[in-house]
């Protein structure tokens, strides 16, 4: 049931993001289908990785970013920040990938928006709205970075989970090599 829910959420999140980017229902449906059945995504889900269900947060964070940029809505920025923070809590590697993706994606989306704003009379107000939306989003990103660097270092590493697993523990949850 959780796998089906994760697939539905992943498809819905990708649909929303691509629909926001292109305005095309056909492109959004195609992207949702492809995203739902990408082999790397399925390995996370079917392999028993609990974080596989969090994969939908990646396109959802991108959707909220694009909505915040387009509308200047602080609510969309806040939802994007919460989504990004949730991704860092659920599965840090996906959060790292989101940050690396945003290094190129954010300027690619913001530069045209700034050019558009500069060509309008009410540019100052739009810049203010965009700054507030970005601030809300950045708080969530900063919270995710804090979670990854400080909180986990202090609390998780001092528990039994912080030392890693022995090969005997790994073998309890993995098929033997000859079964592959």
Summarize the structure.
The chain is mostly helical and 180 residues long. It has eight helices and no strands.
Number of helices: 8
Describe the biggest sheet? none
Radius of gyration: 19 Å
Question: DSSP strand (E) fraction?
Answer: under 5%
- The N- and C-terminal alpha carbons lie at a distance of 26 Å
Kindly describe this structure.
- The two termini are 26 Å apart.
- Helix content is 78%, strand content 0%.
- The mean pLDDT is 83.
- Helix 1 (2-22) packs parallel to helix 4 (57-71), helix 5 runs antiparallel to helix 6 (92-118) and helix 5 (74-90) packs parallel to helix 7 (123-156).
- The protein is globular and about 70 Å long.
- It is mainly alpha-helical and 180 residues long.
- It has 8 helices and no strands.
- The protein has helices at 2-22, 25-36, 39-46, 57-71, 74-90, 92-118, 123-156, 167-173.
Features of this protein?
180 residues; 8 helices; globular
Topology:
Layout lengths: L1 H21 L2 H12 L2 H8 L10 H15 L2 H17 L1 H27 L4 H34 L10 H7 L7
